[in-house]
Amino acid sequence: MSTKIEAVRGMNDILPEQTVLWQHVEQLLRKVVTRYGYQEIRMPVLEKTDLFHRSIGEVTDIVEKEMYTFLDRNNESLTLRPEGTACCVRAGIEHGLLYNQIQRLYYMGPMFRHERPQKGRYRQFYQFGLEAFGMHGPDIDAEIIFITARLWHELGLTNRLQLHINSLGSNVARQQYRQALVDYFSQYQAELDEDSQRRLKSNPLRILDSKNPHLQDLIARAPQLMNYLDEESQQHFTQLKGLLDKAGIVYRVNPRLVRGLDYYNRTVFEWVMGEMGAQNTVCAGGRYDGLVEQLGGQATPAIGFALGLERLIILLQEIQLKVGQEPEVYFIMAGTEARLEGLALAEQLRTELPLLTLLCDCTGGSFKNQIKRADKSGARLALILGENEINNKQIAVKYLRENEGRQEILPLKALIKFLTDFL
Ligand code: ATP
Ligand code: MG
């Protein structure tokens, strides 16, 4: 026997048993955001490497150590997208969607990061992302947060997730804050880990985003960005909080929330399960008013979020959300003649009853085995067609879950009416 080839580490197959739940979530996401007027955009999974260097930032976890980057056959450096915002902005600029326009866009698909695989952290994972362009006021920030809150509500997750919000202010405010952070952390240089020591020089805000448990105390006592905010950002944040309060959205202002990418300004938010920590963030986003210009477009205000589908699925499994995938009806055909008539009849039923899920037994096995498979399929009803039934223009129906497993014989022409009432 040859050796088996396995999947790449950190990249998962999603099996039929799980795809039911995935499809349920995906459909719900699409439905909810469509109700708010968002439209789907689909981008390639490969982009020029430079796109991510210029947007996410050189001194971030993603760009420093997580990207799948390689030279293609033309010696061009390409990268498997680690996130969708940069790609969406690139596409928006390229196709003239952003200049002087309002756009509400969403996307869904795989992202790639070379991280240490563990529960809730993979090398290929799926994100649902949403971006709104052309609006600078806090209303759109609020709308986006309302959307996420509605998603949790519809999935039954409201009391599992907490909203953390913060404001990063303007670039100028962040520059001043940066100096305050350097002054503070420099006093404790010996206590910092290697990454943070390096970041002290290159990107001190990133230290606040560190997942190292030993640094959490030190980080908690660091100066707070909130005290350095510019007047306008402060107003924007106050208005946003007012809008959230008015809509009854509960939040916690978390001054440590800085997000792991460079392009954010003003509003940032995360939906977190339990306490803040590794793999606890299900959904994260914020404003990125400078990014469109930074990537070669006209200055355009923008805000968006991305949610990790695997982490959402883990939560849904925890609350044991049940989504049915059983067929409603299982069709048993005994004998050659019955298979000939039966498959044609099945097609007719599917045409007449668009909502019916009908599974035909195509094994040609014994009646007894077919009945066993019908039961195992989880179907509620079995249709049975044999030689007798064909001769008498009848069909047998057997309840598999209800009515004590009763079996009845119907005239064939009464079947559609019977199934319509049954469904
Ligand atoms: P973390 O702090 O957990 O590393 P992040 O800040 O790197 O997350 P973002 O870039 O904000 O994550 O991505 C948004 C969401 O995508 C996350 O909140 C999470 O749900 C999901 N996500 C990010 N990286 C992974 C991963 N490697 N595997 C699974 N889901 C992920
Ligand atoms: Mg990360």
Describe the model.
The mean pLDDT is 93. The protein has an eight-stranded mixed beta sheet with strand order 1-5-6-11-10-9-7-8. A five-stranded mixed beta sheet has the order 13-12-14-15-16, sandwiched between helices. The chain is elongated and about 90 Å long. The protein has helices at 16-35, 49-55, 61-66, 85-94, 138-155, 171-186, 194-202, 216-220, 231-246, 291-294, 309-318, 336-352, 367-376, 387-391, 415-422; strands at residues 39-40, 46-48, 68-71, 77-80, 103-112, 124-133, 161-167, 252-253, 265-273, 281-287, 302-308, 329-333, 358-360, 381-385, 394-399, 407-411. Helix 1 runs antiparallel to helix 5 (138-155) and helix 5 runs parallel beside helix 9 (231-246). The chain is built from 15 helices and 16 strands. It is an alpha+beta fold. The structure holds adenosine-5'-triphosphate and magnesium ion. Adenosine-5'-triphosphate is lined by residues 83, 113, 115, 120-122, 125, 127, 260, 279, 281-284, 306-308, 310-311.
